[in-house]
Write a structure and sequence with these properties.
hydrolase; TatD/YcfH-like; 9 helices; metal-binding; about 270 residues; DNA nuclease activity; single chain
C-alpha cells in the first residue's frame, strides 16, 4: 500500500522533536507522500523548508480564514512559484470561532470579519486560478456562503480543489461535478460521525481523498493522542467497512484521485 496524506500540519511544533520518526512510522504504514497546508503566514517558511529537505513532502501556500485579517498576497505569491508548492490553501470560511477571531483581529464587528473572510477567500481562489493550482478549502459552519463563492469561480479553477475535512453537508456534494474532491479523515471513526457515515456513500469514488489533519482529529482508537499520518490506514479501514468496498480497490482509486488533483508526482509508485 502506498497512499498520500493530503492534509497534515507536519510543520506544527508538536512534531519538532520526532519529525523523522513520524515519517518513518508513516512509511511503514504505507503513507509515502505528504502535503503540508499553510494555516498562518508564519507557517510557510517552515513548510517550505521541510518540503525541500524531504523529497516526499510537499506544501501549499495560503491563509486560514481565522487569520484572514492578516492577508498578505505578495507574501503568498513568493511561495506559489516554488516547485514543491502544489496548491493554494488552506483557505475558506470559518464561522465557528468568530468571537475569538474578532478579539484577536481587533476589528469592529462580526460582520466586518465575515466580509474580510469572504474577500480573502476570493483573493486566494483567484491566486489558484492565476497559478493554475488546486485549492485546499476549509469550511466550518459556513457551507452556504462557501458554496456560493465556489460555484461562482469553479469553472475557472482548472485544477479544482479539495474540501478538507469534509463536514458532511449535503449541499456541498454538488461540487463534485465542478472538479472538487472530499478529504476524509479521522472524524469518520468517531462515534458521533453518523452524518458523515450517512453521506459518505453519496460521494463519488472518483472524488474521495484521505487526510489526517495531523496533529488534530486523531482517529479511534487513538483519540486524545497527537494525530499523525501513520493513522491513515484506520480511516481507510472504516471507509472500506462503510462502503463495502475492498481496501485494495479504494487505494487504487484514491491514488488516482490524488494524482488527478495534485499532479503526476503523486501517482502510486
Amino acid at each position: 500500500m502506498q497512499l498520500c496524506d493530503t492534509h497534515c500540519h507536519l510543520d506544527d511544533k508538536r512534531f519538532e522533536g520526532d519529525f523523522e520518526a513520524v515519517l518513518e512510522r508513516a512509511k511503514k504504514a504505507g503513507i509515502t507522500r505528504f502535503v503540508i497546508p499553510a494555516a498562518h503566514l508564519e507557517d510557510l517558511e517552515r513548510a517550505r523548508e521541510l518540503a525541500h529537505k524531504y523529497e516526499e513532502v510537499y506544501f501549499a501556500s495560503g491563509l486560514h480564514p481565522n487569520y484572514a485579517y492578516l492577508y498578505d498576497e505578495e507574501f503568498l505569491k513568493s511561495f506559489l512559484g516554488d516547485e514543491k508548492c502544489v496548491a493554494v490553501g488552506e483557505c475558506g470560511l470559518d464561522y465557528y470561532r468568530l468571537e475569538e477571531a474578532l478579539a484577536e483581529s481587533k476589528l469592529g464587528s462580526i460582520e466586518e470579519l465575515k466580509r474580510i473572510q469572504k474577500e480573502v477567500f476570493v483573493a486566494q481562489i483567484k491566486l489558484a486560478i492565476a497559478y493554475e493550482k488546486p485549492l485546499i478549502v476549509h469550511i466550518r459552519e459556513a457551507s452556504s456562503d462557501s458554496l456560493e463563492i465556489l460555484q461562482k469561480y469553479a469553472k475557472d479553477l482548472k485544477r479544482g480543489g479539495v474540501l478538507h475535512c469534509f463536514n458532511a453537508d449535503f449541499q456541498l456534494l454538488s461540487l463534485a461535478k465542478e472538479g472538487f474532491y472530499y478529504g476524509i479523515g479521522g472524524v469518520l471513526t468517531f462515534k458521533n460521525a453518523r452524518k458523515l457515515v450517512e453521506v459518505l456513500p453519496k460521494i463519488p469514488l472518483e472524488s474521495l481523498l484521505l487526510e489526517t489533519d495531523a496533529p488534530y482529529l486523531t482517529p479511534h482508537p487513538h483519540r486524545g493522542e497527537r494525530n499523525e499520518p501513520a493513522y491513515i490506514p484506520l480511516v481507510l479501514e472504516k471507509m472500506s467497512e462503510i462502503l463495502g468496498i475492498p481496501k485494495e480497490i479504494l487505494i487504487k482509486q484514491i491514488n488516482l484521485n490524488t494524482e488527478n488533483l495534485f499532479g503526476e508526482v503523486f501517482g502510486a509508485a
